[in-house]
Please model this.
Amino acid sequence: MPARLIYDHETRDAKSAAAGPGSPGDLMNMDTLVSLSKRRGFVFQSSEIYGGTGSVWDYGPLGVELKNNIKRVWWRDFVQSRADMVGIDASILMHPMVWKASGHLEHFTDPMVDCRECKHRFRADHVDALPWTHYCPATKGNKFTIPAGEPCGHCGQRRSLCPQCGKGELTEPRQFNLMFKTFMGPVEEDAAVTYLRPETAQAMFVNFDNVLQSMRLKLPFGIAQAGRSFRNEITPGNFIFRTREFEQMEIEFFVNPNDRVDGRPADEYWHDRWIKDCVAWFRRYGLTDANLRLREHEKDELAHYAKRTVDIEYKFPIGWSELMGIANRTDFDLKQHAKWSGKSLTYFDEERKEHVVPYVVEPAAGVDRALLAFMVDAYREEEVRGEKRVVLKFHPELAPLKVAVLPLLKKRDDIVRTAHAIRADLAKRWRVVYDDTAAIGRLYRRQDEVGTPYCVTVDVQTVGDSERGETGDQKVTIRDRDSMEQIRVPIAELATVFRDLLDGAAWSEASARYPAPRA
Ligand code: ATP
Model:
């Protein structure tokens, strides 16, 4: 589809506008990402010991922390802290009529084509975006791989056969419904067919009246939900970018279509407002401005229910692709569910003394794609004293581990005991780990590689030497991941220092209050 980019480059701050090659995001290719994710416990292939399952992935010990943190800050920023938002947690299995009313049974399809020769299957609308294999007649049939959309440089031919094998013809496109089918109850008959939800959104429409009545809400207000969705994608892939089971964070923001805000129809005002707020949210948690852009859907690309849709795209290692979509769905969904259920799904406008069907603006984000983008943008390779340092510069709120407590000498019981006690104390509030399985330099590098913002080191000075009658100073060293600077802090003040730092205080504020350790 032709893309109309509407990103306002004027809004870039000077720092990210200046970012050129080698800037955040450029260093991380998919192979690096997949291997780091496996090695350090972020993401594993599902059922790997049985050879893996197609396009489903498991989040490991660090991946689950990162993912939970993304969902937690999203919920806090968009639900908890706003007076006009509430949340729900609906079931994955819904009444099959939901999908009839929503249009998913009829329209939630992708065109599919197959190669008659190698049997490879493609999404028809993705074929031209693939590099293609060509046996060139002008060079005695030599095999070339030609970039997507380009003709052969020797014979000038354009792709007409299967891009994968370069030999077979492609079938005519057939529509393929992406919903996973299953059966409710013990009997596998047509009447028992139901579906795994392909999006979380419909539960917000179906529960519109329950939420409105139970919470006594006034327009405009939003209902949010984060949860699993399932799509039987024809060509999944690119790691966790496109999977068959994934998580979404969706908001349905209902507005009165008769209202005007700042002289504009309320739905249009709120649509633009949500686009701005969502971009700001991704930037706040670490995505570089140069890696974000907005893409307006063309009229012929719009979903059947949408008045206007804008995607926030991210420069993933696979190229610019959708990170989230923000659609103005008008009153389509509520009207459809009212029609098919026979229940009224309206709002009583006290001022105008009339019932209205609200319009809805839908900011819909994918948790897995957000996680992928945050990892890509956080990845840096730096040179420190002649050695390569790999560091994930996660925003502290997203970092899977907040603090690592490291004993300088693991043979000294008193040092180890103190380190364990510090970990246990800090762990009441944050995810904090203890590690003594390598020398300190190595331990720092390991924590850098998974993005832990702070390390605490317990050393001889902390505990003293009881055999010599020396008492320790009861202070430890905190090391900052990004600057690698260190400060010496009393153990008793650690929780306060970390509360400030992890709540967003700059490292310079802490380093102005506490001295550097003695060399
Ligand atoms: P695409 O065009 O990439 O298939 P979509 O426009 O169908 O995505 P939406 O229905 O708007 O996606 O879903 C909202 C968000 O859910 C997407 O922006 C994306 O972040 C996420 N998402 C959708 N499908 C998948 C998938 N198969 N795997 C991972 N995330 C997904």
